[in-house]
Amino acid sequence: MAKKLFVGGIPWATTSDDLKQLFSAHGTVATATVITDKMTGRSRGFGFVEFENDAEAEAAINALNNSQYGGRTLVVKEARPLEDRPRRSFGGQGGNGGGYGRRDQY
């Protein structure tokens, strides 16, 4: 069964091919994708690598997590589905506490 890994902290110049080559040393990589910004096309500094074998994916996590690559420290862990991530709350109040101004102005 395939296992997908999240890879954070990748250097900005890293391509999907670079990512695939880095992880191929630890097993058979099915896909490797560097996530890019929709507007600029520049790397967002993270990506995903999918292994065909779970044991190879675990070996890659153990070998590459917290390792140095291109002057940056990689974060490698099992990817979680979008719906499993905790929701971020911004409070819904806006920048000034939700009011229109200071209370003493009314």
Protein architecture, described:
The chain has 106 residues and is α+β, with helices and mostly antiparallel strands. It has one domain (3-80): RRM (RNA recognition motif) domain (Alpha-Beta Plaits), CATH 3.30.70.330. Helices cover 19% and strands 29% of the residues. The protein is built from two helices and six strands; from the N terminus they run E-H-E-E-H-E-E-E. The chain has helices at 16-24, 54-64, and strands spanning 3-8, 29-36, 43-51, 68-69, 72-73, 75-78. The strands form two sheets. It has a four-stranded antiparallel beta sheet with strand order 2-3-1-6, with helices on one face. Strands 4-5 form a two-stranded antiparallel sheet. Strand 4 and strand 5 (72-73) form a beta hairpin. The longest helix has 11 residues, at 54-64. The radius of gyration is 19 Å and the shape is globular. The mean pLDDT is 86.
Architecture blueprint of SSEs:
Layout: E1 3-8, H1 16-24, E2 29-36, E3 43-51, H2 54-64, E4 68-69, E5 72-73, E6 75-78
Antiparallel strand pairs: 1-3, 1-6, 2-3, 4-5
Give me a quick take on this structure.
This protein has 106 residues and is α+β, with helices and mostly antiparallel strands.
Task: Give the biggest beta sheet.
Answer: 4 strands, antiparallel
**Spatial shape:** globular
Radius of gyration: 19 Å
Find the CATH superfamily: RRM (RNA recognition motif) domain
Describe the oligomeric state of these chains in a short phrase: single chain
Helix percent band: 10-25%
Overall number of domains? 1
Give the number of DSSP strands: 6
Class from secondary-structure proportions: alpha+beta
Strand order of the largest sheet: 2-3-1-6
CATH fold topology: Alpha-Beta Plaits
The CATH C-level class name: Alpha Beta
Number of helices: 2
β-sheet strand percentage: 25-35%
Overall mean pLDDT stands at 86
